[in-house]
Design a protein that fits this description.
The complex is a heterodimer of chains A (297) and B (224).
Chain A: E1 2-9, H1 18-28, E2 36-42, E3 50-56, H2 63-73, E4 76-82, E5 85-90, H3 94-104, E6 108-114, E7 117-123, H4 126-132, E8 142-148, E9 163-166, E10 169-177, H5 180-189, H6 199-212, H7 217-227, E11 230-237, E12 241-246, E13 255-258, E14 262-266, H8 269-272, E15 282-284, E16 292-295
Antiparallel strand pairs in A: 1-8, 1-14, 2-7, 2-8, 3-5, 3-6, 4-5, 9-10, 10-11, 11-12, 12-16, 13-14, 13-15
Helix pairs in contact in A: 5-6, 6-7
Chain B: E1 2-5, H1 11-19, E2 26-30, E3 47-51, E4 66-70, E5 85-88, E6 104-107, E7 120-126, E8 140-145, E9 161-164, E10 175-178, H2 182-195, E11 205-209
Parallel strand pairs in B: 1-2, 2-3, 3-4, 4-5, 5-6, 6-7, 7-8, 8-9
Antiparallel strand pairs in B: 9-11, 10-11
The chains are: A alpha+beta (297), B alpha/beta (224).
Chain lengths: 297, 224
């Protein structure tokens, strides 16, 4: 069992309250996933270069030293540290930045890359995660969150969702995949890199691979129905919105709701009930294998 | 009439209050916000009106009580109900009425997948559509669907009767369409009236077990 939440703001006036609206949703999903939590937030686009979120496993990591190194190598549009993560908004290409991180900063791993996305995740109770990362004060256009109850691999920060699946893309997953070991080997041969033995990371890697092969998101998800064996409700964050898809059996729950102000998805209605106007929202259960998506026009 | 506000009372307090209610008592429950296991394990003929959407396993194991939900219900509505009546004005999620032995379950909107899975005597009336794998291994009782049915309806069915007004996407293994006889029309008319669904019985088709999957065949005795 895991919990998923997604919130897409339709009324721009609510963008300043994104964190305040999504934090109670994530908190409500604590019982579904008390082991770890994570959130992808889309905000402050950097169109002049790239935005990268990095994670330091070592609590004593010297962020001041790192910040100095960043500023002497790149033009810095914004740099900030949030707990054991840092968000780098730089006037440089993603290739340059990733190569530099790879060559010089072994202690860091990249949790997200793109122009809008920021991904934060942590072990432990979701309410601690929400508090420590100050999720309530985050602004933005849309967010995806996950609470994890680990069933098939270890509880670490890196095993936590969301998983990055490419630039400004991320995946959260409720369910379990049964063919992830073989699929991981196939994807490795195709050049996809994995950080953990987690099944959901394989789904993320699979989507990255399909997208790199030229699929659009809908095509990649339709291929996933063929190639992934197991149970899943996926929510996929994109630069402009998010998409939701359930497996053909539709075992794992999902509920969607929409008002004039927002569109939301969650594993259970009680997470959506925390939103203003939820009582009168249009509410429905997504059909198996149907792709539902919201996009900024 | 007692009103229980779930902003003030815990789910355990609610269920304890309902479970000790006396025959004929009326209860109203407010501020449900999708909470789980509301109004479960009732054994008296009390009336419970729940205002708002409910989460998993509402009205589970119900006996005698009449429970009305003004909203949508999450997975496992009226699971293993024994008797009484459960009505939801909106939609119900997966496996509504699963394994239920008796009583009447009315879903005014749509029911999701696996509605009436392994049902054992309950009568279920759905005003809208039902999802895939509904009435899987259904043993007895009746499932009435006023809308359409999803894939693999009645797979591995035993002796449950299914009446569908709309289209059936596909039938499961050993489920077939059957003749609508006079007694079936009478039974259906009674259920539609009890559920307050205003449709003509002539609009419905009947489905049931082809009895090829589970029946013991004396000619094959040597195979065992």
């Amino acid at each position: 069992m895991c919990g998923i939440v997604g919130l897409f703001i339709k009324n721009p006036e609510l963008e300043s309250q994104l964190g305040a609206l999504v934090a109670p949703m994530l908190s409500e999903m604590t019982e579904r996933g008390p082991d770890s939590a994570g959130m992808a937030v889309y905000r402050d686009p950097n169109e002049k270069g790239c935005k990268v979120t990095v994670l330091a496993q070592d609590a004593d990591f010297d962020w001041a030293d790192f910040e100095n190194a960043v500023s002497s190598n790149f033009s810095v549009i914004k740099f900030y540290v949030n707990q054991n993560h840092a968000v780098l908004s730089l006037g440089a290409s993603l290739n340059e930045v990733e190569a530099w991180l790879h060559d010089n900063w072994n202690a860091l791993s990249v949790t997200s890359a793109g122009s809008n996305i920021e991904i934060f995740k942590g072990k432990g109770n979701p309410s601690d995660f929400i508090e420590q990362f100050d999720i309530k004060n985050m602004t933005g256009t849309h967010a995806l969150g996950h609470t994890r109850m680990a069933t098939e691999s270890a509880i670490t920060t890196e095993h936590s969702h969301p998983f990055s699946t490419g630039q400004d893309l991320c995946l959260v997953h409720n369910g379990s995949l049964s063919n992830h070991n073989r699929l991981r080997e196939t994807l490795k041969r195709a050049g996809v890199q994995f950080k953990t033995d987690n099944d959901s990371e394989v789904a993320a890697g699979y989507l990255s691979w399909r997208l790199s092969e030229g699929d659009d998101l809908d095509q990649a998800l339709n291929h996933a129905i063929e190639d992934l064996d197991g149970f899943y409700t996926f929510a996929i964050g994109t630069k402009d919105g998010f998409a939701v898809m359930r497996d053909p059996i539709g075992c794992k729950p999902a509920i969607m709701a929409e008002t004039d102000d927002w569109a939301a998805m969650s594993s259970e209605y009680r997470a959506i009930a925390t939103l203003p106007g939820a009582e009168n929202a249009r509410i429905w259960e997504p059909e198996p294998t149907q792709i539902y998506s919201w996009k900024r026009s | 009439m007692a009103t229980i506000d779930l902003n003030q009372s815990s789910i355990r307090e609610l269920n304890e209050k309902l479970q000790v209610g006396s025959s004929g008592d009326n209860f109203t429950v407010n501020n449900t916000v999708g909470k789980h296991a509301l109004s479960v394990g009732l054994t008296k003929d009390i009336n419970v009106e729940i205002n708002g959407h409910v989460g998993y396993y509402c009205a589970g194991m119900n006996q005698e009580a009449s429970i009305k939900i003004n909203g949508n219900a999450g997975p496992g509505l009226a699971e293993n109900m024994m008797s009484g009546q459960v009505r939801v004005t909106g939609n119900a999620s997966q496996y509504a009425g699963a394994t239920a032995h008796g009583g009447l379950l009315v879903i005014e909107g749509d029911a999701s997948s696996r509605c009436g899975i392994s049902m054992k005597g309950v009568n279920i009336v759905v005003g809208g559509n039902i999802g895939h794998m509904s009435a899987f291994m259904a043993q007895s009782g009746t499932l009435v669907v006023c809308g359409d049915a999803g894939d693999a309806m009645g797979d591995s069915i035993y002796e449950t009767k299914i009446y569908v007004r709309g289209k059936v996407k596909s039938l499961g293994t050993d489920c077939e369409e059957k003749e609508m006889k006079k007694e079936h029309k009478e039974e259906l008319a009674t259920l539609l009236e009890m559920a307050q669904m205003n449709y003509s019985v002539d609009e419905f088709r009947r489905y049931g077990s082809a009895r090829k999957l589970y029946n013991f065949d004396i000619d094959q005795v040597d195979d065992y």
